[in-house]
Amino acid sequence: MVPHAENAENAENAANATRSRAESEVVDLVSSLIRFDTSNTGELATTKGERECAEWVARKLEEVGYETEYVESGQPGRGNVFARLRGADPSRGALMIHGHLDVVPAEPSDWSVHPFSGAVADGYVWGRGAIDMKDMVGMTLALARQFKAEGTVPPRDLVFAFLADEEAGGTWGSQWLVKNRPDLFEGITEAVGEVGGFSLTVPRPDGSDARLYLVETAEKGLGWMRLTAKARAGHGSFLHEDNAVTILAEAVARLGRHTFPLVVPDSVAEFLGAVSNETGLDFDPSAPDIDTTLEKLGTISRIIGATLRDTANPTMLDAGYKANVIPQTATAVVDCRVLPGRQAEFEKEVDRLIGPDVTREWITKLDSYETTFDGHLVDAMNAAILAHDPDGRTVPYMLSGGTDAKAFATLGIRCFGFAPLQLPPELDFTALFHGVDERVPVDALQFGTRVLEHFLLHS
């Protein structure tokens, strides 16, 4: 063995000796989770893999002594797993740590590695779900196993929930569970899940960098809307002024090009205030150039910009069955994301834009959610970050998408997004969600495991 290789191996062995059990196995767990192809197509017939993955998670928990409950949420194969670790104070409400096992589909030919390989290379774990959200699932599973194996008693009961169907709105996952198995959530008062706790590096006026850790305290409402135009069918060669395709296309174009009014929810105002404080830049949401100013934050501006307005993005079109037949019906699907308190005004504006000849219906409609950035749990998050990154700072933000928190909030559970990761400043993190070559840094997983451990033991 050459000297420098021997030194590297010794350094790695020394590092392994100081790592906790959870930190040592989290990378392998995340890689193993990714190797389960749990692609959720949104259709019951073609979605796969959730049962096998859930059963594997249950076995990993049972290996260290947990009693688990496996539940299929309304349809065969839609597997969910629950396990509870008793805490020191049974009078306190339980904390739920939840993660979904399903992922969006991936086309292997587009990727540098196979999307379900779970490859560990170049300092990353690669594959579909690496950051959405098998990273958090792996960290949660690693810590649950460590706590049970080592006899750790947390301050309060911890409920570990591994769920199906989040990527299709939770109809056959969290939404079904909340409606049909509310007993699973008995005694739970707070919950943490995905898309929060990750770092955002911003420049300070003195040239140094500040690391902000974004805690999700709010989500826009999620609604998938079907638009339908009906008119007279006819031959494609005739003069035909009453054409369903034309009526629908014009309505879709008006809606797709429309800019909804600027609104600043409390969580967004707090985030912009914190960033202004750190950077010295003026992120005044009422300024006419706010969109340009937000671009100075880098790729996170995609999310933040989308939390200043409602959005309605056409995503699907369907009409006709033959080239020379004018169809009687044309339909479109629009992905709508609505700010808290804006639902009635949003629908009124949509109706004005699509006009009287187009009807609309909700395929899926999930309410917005917002909580305040305060209290013991927020203090515990901040303390956990500072314990492992003394220069860090937690700040609230609103997610432009949605998570299973929408379902749990209907039970009165206070929900946050806190899946901690310290990310390289150059990594385009937001582009990895549902993107090609999705990956998570190994160092970020190990950092996140340490932070999450501190948080759970002080929550």
Can you walk me through this structure?
Belongs to the peptidase M20A family. Residues 1-22 are annotated as: Disordered. Residues 217-346 form the Peptidase M20 dimerisation domain. Its cofactor is Zn(2+). The chain has 459 residues and is of the alpha+beta class. 33% of the residues lie in helices and 24% in strands. The chain contains 14 helices and 19 strands. Strands 1-2-6-3-7-18 form a six-stranded mixed β-sheet. Strands 8, 9, 16 and 17 form a four-stranded mixed β-sheet that branches. The chain is globular. The protein starts with a helix and ends with a helix. Mean pLDDT is 94; it is low at 1-5.
Strand order of the largest sheet: 1-2-6-3-7-18
Instruction: Please provide the count of β strands.
Output: 19
- Proportion of residues in extended strands: 15-25%
Shape: globular
- The amount of helix comes to 25-40%
Report the total helices: 14
- Report on the biggest sheet: 6 strands, mixed
Supply Rg.
24 Å
Structural class: alpha+beta
Q: Which helices and strands, and how do they pair?
A:
Elements: H1 3-18, H2 21-34, H3 50-62, E1 68-72, E2 79-85, E3 94-100, E4 120-121, E5 124-126, H4 134-149, E6 158-163, H5 174-180, E7 188-193, E8 198-203, E9 209-219, E10 221-230, E11 234-235, H6 244-257, H7 266-279, H8 290-294, H9 301-305, E12 311-319, E13 325-326, E14 329-338, H10 343-354, E15 358-366, E16 369-370, H11 376-388, E17 392-399, H12 405-409, E18 414-417, H13 429-432, E19 439-441, H14 442-456
Parallel strand pairs: 3-6, 3-7, 7-18, 9-17
Antiparallel strand pairs: 1-2, 2-6, 4-5, 5-19, 8-9, 9-16, 10-14, 10-15, 11-13, 12-14
Helix pairs in contact: 2-4, 2-14, 4-14, 11-14
